[in-house]
Each structure stands twice: as C-alpha cells, then as structure tokens.
Specification:
- This protein is an alpha/beta fold and 189 residues long.
- The protein has one domain (4-186): Glutaredoxin, CATH 3.40.30.10.
- Helix content is 37%, strand content 21%.
- It contains 5 helices and 7 strands.
- The protein has a 7-stranded mixed beta sheet.
- The relative contact order is 0.22.
C-alpha cells in the first residue's frame, strides 16, 4: 500500500497538469474569422518586402494564404525552437505559400520592440517576421488572447482559424512544437 499511494498520487498530479493545459483557452478558435490588426515589424523575414520599423497589418498582407500567427509573452529559447521549426516548414512549403509571423505581447511596447530586434538577430528568422502589435498587453482585442497564456498559436487559412494551441509558462515543449508544425503542414497537403 505504501508503494501504491505515491504512484497513484504521481499519476493524479500528472493528469491534473495535462487537464490544466487542456483547459486553457486563448485566442480565436477553429471556425472563427481572423481580423485585421496593426503591428510594427522589428526583425526577421528580410525578403518579404516589409522594412524593419514599418507599420502594417501582416494578417492583411498575407490575405487568405495559409498562415501561422504566434502570440508570445517571452522571447526565450522555447520560442526560438518553435520559430526555427516554423521557419524550416515555411521554407519547405514556399511553393504552397505557407507563411508565419510572431507577435510579441506584453505591458511595455518599447521593451517588446527591443526584445523582438534582439531575438531576430540571435535566432535568424529567415522567413518569419517578428512583430509587435499596436494593441497591448494581450495583442489585438478581437483575438481573445488570454492573460494566462504564455504562448498562443493560431493557424488559419482562407481567413478562418483551422487550429489553435495555447500554453501556460513552460507549456511549449518539443512535443507541442511537433503538433503545431503538423497542424501547419495540414494546411498545405
């Protein structure tokens, strides 16, 4: 019995952690339309025709193309791994017009712009634009990004959300990055 109780407790704790992640709802959900929102480009995607410092609506620029929109509160190594995988996927699927951009969100727009510039220089986002939305601290209001979400990924095509992934701090893992990339690839199969 002494051995069984710790095992049952460990399973219960692990399940609670998984259930908690599944309960996090952040961002537009599948079937919802994606609206326009203004951002400032800070880094990345050097050949997309948008200059660093330019203000525009990236979602509008991409139109109905299949796209991955990442909203992140941190420019950390986990985000760098996601960006690297998305950059590879966007490059591999260039003929299918798959696109992606990363939005840094938070309380201080000037600090976010600085972080975005540093992130772009450190992590060579060849095809991925790193931007800061004008709407802060949770990104564009109509996108319903939860204040509890560290990273929200909205995958869309034809102006509608096809899938959504939301993570609390430390929730973005190698496994979750694989799921995001798989969902993005489904758009162009």
């Amino acid at each position: 019995m002494r051995v069984l109780f710790p095992m049952v407790a460990a399973v219960a704790i692990a399940f609670a952690g998984v259930a908690g992640a599944a309960d996090l709802k952040s961002g537009l959900q599948p079937g919802e339309g994606i609206g326009a929102f203004d951002v400032e480009k800070c880094a990345g995607a050097a050949d997309d025709g948008v200059k660093v410092g330019q203000k525009l609506c990236y979602r509008c620029k991409l139109g109905a193309r299949p796209m991955v929109m990442v909203f992140s509160r941190n420019a950390d190594e986990k985000l760098a791994k996601l960006v690297a995988e998305l950059d590879k996927t966007v490059t591999d699927k260039a003929d299918m017009k798959l696109a992606a951009f990363v939005n840094l969100i938070g309380d201080d727009a000037a600090e976010l712009k600085s972080k975005a510039e540093k992130f772009g220089k450190s992590h060579k986002a060849g095809k991925i634009a790193i931007v800061v939305p004008q709407d802060q601290p949770n990104g564009p209001e109509g996108y319903k990004i939860s204040k509890d979400a560290d990273v929200t990924v909205i995958i869309a095509s034809e102006g509608k959300v096809t899938s959504n992934h939301a993570f609390k701090a430390d929730g973005l893992t190698a496994e979750s990055i694989k799921k995001i990339v798989a969902d993005a690839e489904k758009l162009v199969e």
